[in-house]
Amino acid sequence: MKKAIIILLIAVASFNASAEIYSYLKFTKTDGTTLTCPVEGLKLTYDSNNVYISHSEGEEEILLSSLLSMSFSNEKSQDTGLRGDVNSDGEVNIADVNAVIAAILSGQDSSEGRADVNCDREVNIADVNAIIDIILGN
Ligand SMILES: [Ca+2]
Ligand SMILES: [Ca+2]
Fold first, then answer.
1. pTM for the full model?
2. Which residue segment(s) compose the domain that 59 sits in?
3. Rounded to the nearest whole angstrom, what is the distance from the C-alpha of residue 92 to the centroid of ligand 1?
4. Which residues have CB less than 5 Å away from ligand 1 (the ion)?
């Protein structure tokens, strides 16, 4: 918890200087997922449990204890960094299973490789099983 607050204070302190150079602020969470927010109109507030991020495209909140690091970036990351998150919406659920099945049936993987969940360079039923295992927590 203390670490998260320190990271936050450093980020806020360096924010004004960096905001002129970078377009996005990237939050990395302890589960490996990332959240990328546009710097424009960005406002950070926090209480003892959460950091609240308000920006030009909406509002987010992250549990302080799940925040690993923050960094500035010039690219909006499309990859949520979450294994099995084929459609890049930040969650692994049935929609990702459907996305893999669609890739198998069409023979085309439009997910830039994310449909190959088990990383064997093929998109097939084994990847569907891999996502189901992730959903079930195996
Ligand atoms: Ca998903
Ligand atoms: Ca595969």
1. 0.46
2. 2-73
3. 4
4. 85, 87, 89, 91, 96
Domain count, the chain: 2
Residues 55 and 19 in one domain: yes
Query: 103: helix, coil or strand?
Result: helix
Whether residue 84 lies inside any domain: the answer is no
Does residue 79 lie in a domain region?
no
Q: Is the pLDDT of residue 16 over 60?
A: no
Q: Residue 23 — very low, low, confident or very high, per pLDDT cuts 50/70/90? A: confident
Q: What is the pLDDT of residues 27-53, one digit of tens each?
A: 888 887 778 888 888 888 989 999 999
For 30, left (φ over 0), alpha (ψ -120 to 50), or beta? alpha
Structure tokens, 9: 């204070």
Distance between CA 90 and CA 84 in Å, rounded? 10
